[in-house]
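ok new one. same drill as before - C-alpha cells go in, u give me an amino acid for every spot. 390 of them this time. try not to just spam alanines like last time pls lmao
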C-alpha cells in the first residue's frame, strides 16, 4: 500500500472505514523497525563480542515478547537513533530481555540487577539504593476496548523526559546525575490511581460516542507517561516525539484548569502525531534534511503563535484538522458540552487566518502529495463549515 499523505485527510475525519488503512500503516511501520533492528544487530556483531549471546537470547523469546519489544517507543529510538552506537543498542536490548524473563516468572518481588522493560511497564525504581536487591514494580494499565496501554509515572523512561523546553530527553548519564542531586516530582500512589481512573473514564466515554477515535488513540499510543512538575504547577503540557514513536507525555494533569476536554484533546493530539511519525518513515516530506529540521526556514503557528520548524508546522496542519473534526462530532459535543465548542474554536481558528500553503516558504523541497494534502484539509474544513461555497 502506498501511504500518500492525502490519505491522512480522510483518516482524520474519523470514519471507521479507515481502520484497515491505519492498521496497514502500523504493520508496515513495524516492519521498518524490524529491519532497523536487524541492521543494528548486524552492526553490533561486527564490533561487540557480547552481541552473539544477546542475539541467542533474543531468538529464544516468544513471539508476544518480541512484539512488545519491537512496538515500544524506546525501541524505535534504539533502532533508528542508536543503531550506530552498538553498546547502547545492546544495553537497551539486554534490559528489555531481562524484563521479559521476569514477566515469564512473575513471582520474584526483588531482583539483584535493575530491570526496565521496553514500554516501561516493568521496572525497578531508578532512585534510592545503588545496589540490589531492587524492588520490582509494574505500571498500571489503561484499558480501552481490547487495548491495554502502560501508564508510566516513574520508570526511567518517564523520568528521562526533561520538563525543560530546550532539552527534551536526558541521556542515562544525565538522568543518573539528576537522580543523585535532586528530588524528582512524583505523584503519590493515590494520585496515580486517581489520574489513571480519570483518563480511563475520558477515553471510555469517547469510545461510547466516537468509537473510532477511542480506537485510534489506543492504537497509536504505545505508552502513556504522566509527570508532575511542581516548579510550574499551573502549566499543563502534552508532548510526543518522532524519536520515541507512540509515546505520549502529559505534564500537570492535576492543574486546576485542566478539565476533561483538555485531557481528551491532548490524547487525540499526540496520537495523531504518532500516526504522522509513522508516515514520515514511509514518505519523505521534504528532500532537504536541514529544511525539515528548521535550519533556515520556519513559520509562525496560526493556532498558537509559536515559531515552528517546517516539520512542526506541517504536522500541526494535520493535527489541528483532526482535532476540529473530533470536536465537531455531534455525540462528542453533547457529552463535553461547552468545553467541546471551546476546543473546536481553538482548532478551527488557525485555518481561517491565512492560506496554509502560502506560509510554506520551503515548498520547492516538499513532496507534492504533502502540499496537496494540506491544501485539501484546509479547503475541506472551510467547505464543511460553509457548504454553500463548495
Amino acid at each position: 500500500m502506498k501511504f500518500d499523505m492525502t490519505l491522512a485527510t480522510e483518516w482524520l475525519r474519523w470514519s471507521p472505514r479507515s481502520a484497515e488503512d491505519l492498521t496497514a500503516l502500523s504493520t508496515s511501520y513495524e516492519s521498518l523497525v524490524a529491519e532497523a533492528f536487524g541492521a543494528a544487530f548486524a552492526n553490533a556483531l561486527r564490533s561487540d563480542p557480547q552481541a552473539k549471546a544477546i542475539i541467542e537470547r533474543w531468538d529464544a523469546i516468544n513471539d508476544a515478547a518480541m512484539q512488545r519489544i519491537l512496538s515500544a517507543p524506546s525501541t524505535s529510538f534504539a533502532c533508528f537513533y542508536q543503531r550506530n552506537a552498538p553498546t547502547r543498542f545492546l544495553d537497551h536490548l539486554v534490559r528489555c530481555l531481562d524484563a521479559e524473563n521476569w514477566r515469564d516468572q512473575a513471582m520474584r518481588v526483588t531482583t539483584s540487577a535493575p530491570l526496565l522493560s521496553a514500554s516501561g511497564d516493568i521496572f525497578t525504581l531508578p532512585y534510592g539504593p545503588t545496589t540490589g536487591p531492587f524492588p520490582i514494580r509494574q505500571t498500571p494499565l489503561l484499558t480501552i476496548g481490547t487495548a491495554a496501554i502502560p501508564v508510566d509515572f516513574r520508570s526511567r523512561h518517564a523520568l528521562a523526559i526533561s520538563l525543560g523546553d530546550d532539552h527534551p530527553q536526558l541521556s542515562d548519564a544525565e538522568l543518573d546525575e539528576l537522580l543523585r542531586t535532586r528530588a524528582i516530582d512524583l505523584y503519590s500512589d493515590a494520585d496515580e490511581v486517581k489520574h489513571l481512573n480519570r483518563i480511563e473514564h475520558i477515553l471510555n466515554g469517547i469510545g461510547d460516542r466516537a468509537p473510532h477515535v477511542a480506537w485510534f488513540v489506543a492504537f497509536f499510543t504505545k505508552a502513556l507517561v504522566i509527570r508532575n512538575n511542581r516548579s510550574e504547577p499551573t502549566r499543563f503540557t502534552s508532548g510526543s516525539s518522532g524519536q520515541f514513536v507512540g509515546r505520549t507525555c502529559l505534564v500537570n494533569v492535576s492543574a486546576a484548569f485542566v478539565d476533561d476536554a483538555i485531557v481528551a484533546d491532548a490524547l487525540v493530539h499526540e496520537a495523531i502525531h504518532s500516526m504522522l511519525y509513522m508516515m514520515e518513515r514511509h514518505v519523505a516530506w521534504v528532500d532537504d534534511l536541514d529544511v525539515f529540521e528548521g535550519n533556515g526556514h520556519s513559520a509562525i503557528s496560526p493556532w498558537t503563535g509559536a515559531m515552528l520548524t517546517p516539520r512542526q508546522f506541517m504536522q500541526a496542519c494535520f493535527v489541528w484538522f483532526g482535532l476540529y473534526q473530533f470536536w465537531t462530532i455531534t455525540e462528542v459535543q453533547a457529552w463535553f458540552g461547552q468545553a467541546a465548542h471551546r476546543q473546536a474554536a481553538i482548532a478551527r481558528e488557525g485555518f481561517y487566518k491565512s492560506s496554509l500553503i502560502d506560509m510554506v516558504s520551503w515548498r520547492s523541497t516538499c513532496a507534492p502529495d504533502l502540499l496537496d494534502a494540506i491544501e485539501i484539509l484546509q479547503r475541506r474544513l472551510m467547505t464543511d463549515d460553509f457548504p454553500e461555497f463548495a
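The mean pLDDT is 92. and btw The two ends are 31 Å apart (CA to CA).
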